[in-house]
């Protein structure tokens, strides 16, 4: 269960974006691990925990989508989704260990998280969405994949400032470094005041005197990024996985966007997936259908199991094998395997075969044929 993020930041539930941010800033300053560098281990640990809590609370409350989910459900992960057979994800937090916590709770990201502030304009980086093709087995059993993609990063030569060595800039005189200006307009209702992005510095609050040669003054560069992503067993087509903070770099120190991986799962040559269950068409010989017997099949996990075919099995009969389906996402349960019997009739019989069959069929002339017998009775044949 999550903590009360509002309490963590010491603000009311009605706090606006600026209030949330300033509460975060002052608390983060107060509890920053550097402040406690010379304190006891115990105190250091406490500060680190506090600081992590504060950061997490802010990461939720500063993100409109997560905040809305948290306000509604008491968790930034939203409601547990179980109706469709998709398991809800437990846990919360950040980092690679928990990159799955946001799965299924992905909303459109992008520029909606714009945050105006007292100082220069901060804005989260854009989310990056990419498709990842998985084999049927990879989706069933999970896999670790290397993903390579292009993203925008802050230029390391200038620390994202766009100014040479990160220093060749001066404070914008037009906005005095705040990045925004108050514009007064006379209208028939009186004077209207509105806050606008400073046009002299484009909201940065700084004027670059000598641009960084590596990024041409943009402060941002496109880079190829390769990360390893652990995909849990049980994911399905079109499901998404959010890798926190691996999207484009944030603006002016704001957090990165997320990387959103959308799965494309290739079909299997035999099995068809339905939720966590598997379906398999199993052709058997007509003799097996009549007499019954055992048929050995290869399961998805690669081991063989014997399927009992009862005597007199009809075409289309479904045989259910429990727990031989797909492992549930983050749960130690499995779906079932549903085997549909397809009776295969022999074709291109030789004369000898036809003769032998005719003889044996004569033997069966008076056997019990439930459907034929019933039909004949109804039609007085
Ligand atoms: Zn300015
Ligand atoms: Zn640069």
Task: Quickly describe the structure.
By secondary structure, the protein is an alpha+beta fold. It has helices at 5-9, 17-31, 41-61, 64-73, 136-141, 286-291, 351-363, 370-378, and strands at 114-115, 122-123, 128-134, 143-154, 169-171, 180-187, 190-197, 206-208, 220-231, 240-243, 259-265, 272-274, 277-285, 293-298, 304-309, 318-321, 337-344. Bound molecules: zinc ion (2 copies).
Any overview of this molecule?
This protein is of the alpha+beta class. Among the domains are: 1-62, Helix Hairpins (Orthogonal Bundle), CATH 1.10.287.110; 276-378, Sandwich (HSP40/DNAj peptide-binding domain). Helices cover 22% and strands 27% of the residues. The strands form seven sheets. The chain has a four-stranded mixed sheet with strand order 12-13-17-16. It has a three-stranded mixed sheet with strand order 3-11-10. Strands 1-2 form a two-stranded antiparallel sheet. A hairpin with a 2-residue loop joins strand 12 and strand 13 (277-285). Helix 2 packs antiparallel against helix 3 (41-61). The longest helix has 21 residues, at 41-61. The structure holds zinc ion (ZN) (2 copies). One zinc ion (ZN) binds at residues 172, 174-175, 179, 198, 200-201, 205.
């Amino acid at each position: 269960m999550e903590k009360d993020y509002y309490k963590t930041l010491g603000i009311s539930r009605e706090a606006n974006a600026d209030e949330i941010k300033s509460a975060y800033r002052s608390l983060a300053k107060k509890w920053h691990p550097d402040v406690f560098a010379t304190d006891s281990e115990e105190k250091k640990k406490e500060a680190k925990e506090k600081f992590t809590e504060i950061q997490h609370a802010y990461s939720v409350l500063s993100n409109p989508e997560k905040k809305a989910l948290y306000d509604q459900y008491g968790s930034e992960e939203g409601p547990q989704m179980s109706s469709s057979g998709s398991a809800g994800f437990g846990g919360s937090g950040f980092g690679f260990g928990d990159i799955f916590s946001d799965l299924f709770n992905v909303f459109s990201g992008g520029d909606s998280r714009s945050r105006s502030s007292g100082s220069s304009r901060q804005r989260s980086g854009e989310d990056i969405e990419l498709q990842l093709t998985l084999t049927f087995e990879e989706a069933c059993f999970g896999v670790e994949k290397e993903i390579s993609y292009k993203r925008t990063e802050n230029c390391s030569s200038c620390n994202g400032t766009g100014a040479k060595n990160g220093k060749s800039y001066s404070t914008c005189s037009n906005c005095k470094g705040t990045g925004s200006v108050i514009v007064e307009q006379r209208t028939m209702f009186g004077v209207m005041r509105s806050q606008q992005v400073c046009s002299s510095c484009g909201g940065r609050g700084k004027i670059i005197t000598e641009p960084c040669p590596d990024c041409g003054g943009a402060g941002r560069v496109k880079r190829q990024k390769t990360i390893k992503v652990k995909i849990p067993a049980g994911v399905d087509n079109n499901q998404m996985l959010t890798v926190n903070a691996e999207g484009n770099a944030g603006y002016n120190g704001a957090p990165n966007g997320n990387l959103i991986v959308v799965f494309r799962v290739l079909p299997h040559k035999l099995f068809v997936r339905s939720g966590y269950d598997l379906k398999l068409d199993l052709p058997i010989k007509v003799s097996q259908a009549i007499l019954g017997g055992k048929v050995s099949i290869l399961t998805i996990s690669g081991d063989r199991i014997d399927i009992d075919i009862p005597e007199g099995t009809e075409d289309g009969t479904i045989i259910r094998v429990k727990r031989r389906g797909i492992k549930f996402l983050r749960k130690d349960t499995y779906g079932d395997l549903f085997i549909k019997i397809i009776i295969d009739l022999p074709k291109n019989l030789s004369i000898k075969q036809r003769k032998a069959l005719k003889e044996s069929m004569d033997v069966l002339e008076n056997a019990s044929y439930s459907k034929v017998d019933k039909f004949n009775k109804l039609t007085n044949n």
